[in-house]
Specification:
With 323 residues, this protein is of the alpha/beta class. The protein contains 10 helices and 9 strands. The chain has helices at residues 17-28, 57-63, 81-91, 110-119, 147-150, 181-186, 205-215, 239-259, 266-284, 289-315; strands at 7-13, 36-42, 71-75, 96-100, 104-106, 124-134, 163-164, 176-180, 219-231. Strands 1, 2, 3, 4, 5, 6, 7, 8 and 9 form a 9-stranded mixed β-sheet that branches. Mean pLDDT is 90; it is low at 318-323.
Length: 323
C-alpha cells in the first residue's frame, strides 16, 4: 500500500472514554482498499481514574490501540470542538478529512463511500451521510421527542438517494462529516467562535462551512450509504438538555448571521417574530406533546438569539468618521 494516506479519519474527543474505544475500532476495521489513517485529537480530557492518576482514561483508551500504525494520538490543550477539528486537520496527512464523533460508530464502508465521492467530483467541498440513533439499553424515545428535536441528537436522513445540498440548513451533521482540505484551508478552517466549547452547546460550524461552499461555487452532498450510528447519552433524554441546546443554538445562529454580515437592529425584529411564532405554535399543538415541546424549545432558543444580538449591538465597535 502507498505510504501516503488516501483519506484521514479524525475523532475529536473530550472525556468520552466510555464510547471512544468503539468509535476508534469502527475505523480501524474499515473496508477501505487503500491506505488510510486515524487521528484522535484529545481535547484536554481530564477523566482521570483517581487524583493520583497521571494518564486520563481517554488517553489510555487510545494508547491501548497504538499498536496499529494507522492510529495517531494528538493532544490539544485549548478546549473547543472547532479548535480540535482544526488541529486534527493540521496533523492529518491526506487531502480528504473525515470527522467522526467520539460517541459514534461508522459502518465498515464509511471511508470508502466518502473517498469515492471526492474522487469523482473535484468540486465537492463537503460530504456526509445518514446518522441513525442508538438508544441506551432499555430506553425508548420519550413521547415528547419530535423528529425535529431528534436532529439535536444527531439524527440525519435525507432519504435513500444521493442529494446535492443547496440550502445550508440541510448540511451534513458533524457526527458524520467530511471536508476537502483545499476548501477548508480556503475558508480559514472551522470558525472557533462556532462549535461546542466545554459545556457551551454552541453549534453551526458545519452549517457555516456549507454556507461558504455554496457561496464560492463548491458542492455539498448527502451520501445515504455513508452511515453512522450515534449513541444517545441518557442525560440528553431530559427536557432541560433540549432547552439548553435550544438556547445555545439561538446564540450560534446569531453569531453565524454576524459572520455573514447580517447583524444589526434587524436581528431584534427577526428574533421577536420567531419567539411569537414558536409560542403560538406551542399553543396550536397543545394536544401533541412532541410538537408542543419542539416549538417551545424553538421559542426559548430565540431568546438566546436575542440576548446575543443585543450584546452584539451594545459591544459592536463604533465606526469613526474622518472630518
Amino acid at each position: 500500500m502507498p505510504q501516503h494516506p488516501q483519506i484521514s479519519a479524525i475523532i475529536c474527543t473530550h472525556n468520552r472514554h466510555t464510547y471512544l474505544g468503539a468509535a476508534i475500532d469502527s475505523l480501524l476495521i474499515q473496508d477501505f482498499p487503500d491506505n488510510f489513517e486515524v487521528v484522535v485529537v484529545d481535547n484536554a480530557s481530564s477523566d482521570y481514574a483517581s487524583p493520583e492518576s497521571s494518564t486520563s482514561r481517554t488517553r489510555e483508551v487510545v494508547e491501548a490501540r497504538l499498536g496499529d500504525g494507522r492510529l495517531k494520538y494528538v493532544w490539544e490543550p485549548e478546549i473547543g470542538l472547532s479548535v480540535a477539528r482544526n488541529t486534527g486537520a493540521s496533523e492529518a496527512r491526506s487531502e480528504i478529512l473525515a470527522y467522526l464523533d467520539d460517541d459514534a460508530v461508522a459502518d465498515p464502508n464509511w471511508l470508502r463511500v466518502l473517498h469515492s465521492a471526492y474522487q469523482s467530483n473535484q468540486k465537492l467541498a463537503v460530504a456526509g451521510g445518514k446518522v441513525n440513533l442508538a438508544w441506551p439499553c432499555g430506553v425508548s424515545p420519550p413521547e415528547w421527542l419530535s423528529p425535529g428535536l431528534a436532529q439535536n441528537l444527531g439524527a440525519y436522513d435525507l432519504g435513500e438517494s444521493c442529494v446535492y445540498v443547496t440550502a445550508a440548513g440541510l448540511t451534513p451533521r458533524g457526527v458524520n462529516y467530511s471536508i476537502r482540505r483545499a476548501f477548508l484551508e480556503k475558508i480559514g478552517g472551522f470558525d472557533a467562535k462556532l462549535g461546542r466549547v466545554g459545556k457551551k452547546l454552541l453549534s453551526n460550524e458545519e452549517l457555516r462551512a456549507t454556507e461558504l461552499a455554496l457561496e464560492l461555487g463548491w458542492q455539498v452532498v448527502y451520501l445515504p450509504e455513508a452511515v453512522v450510528l450515534h449513541n444517545v447519552a441518557a442525560e440528553r433524554l431530559k427536557k432541560a438538555w433540549f432547552l439548553e441546546r435550544g438556547w445555545w443554538q439561538g446564540i450560534s445562529e446569531c453569531y453565524r448571521e454576524q459572520l455573514s454580515d447580517r447583524a444589526g437592529i434587524a436581528q431584534l425584529g427577526r428574533g421577536g417574530e420567531r419567539i411569537l411564532r414558536g409560542v403560538w405554535k406551542s399553543f396550536k399543538y397543545i394536544r401533541d406533546p412532541a410538537l408542543r415541546f419542539e416549538n417551545f424549545v424553538f421559542a426559548w432558543g430565540q431568546i438566546g438569539y436575542l440576548s446575543a444580538a443585543v450584546r452584539g449591538l451594545i459591544f459592536a465597535p463604533k465606526s469613526t468618521t474622518r472630518h
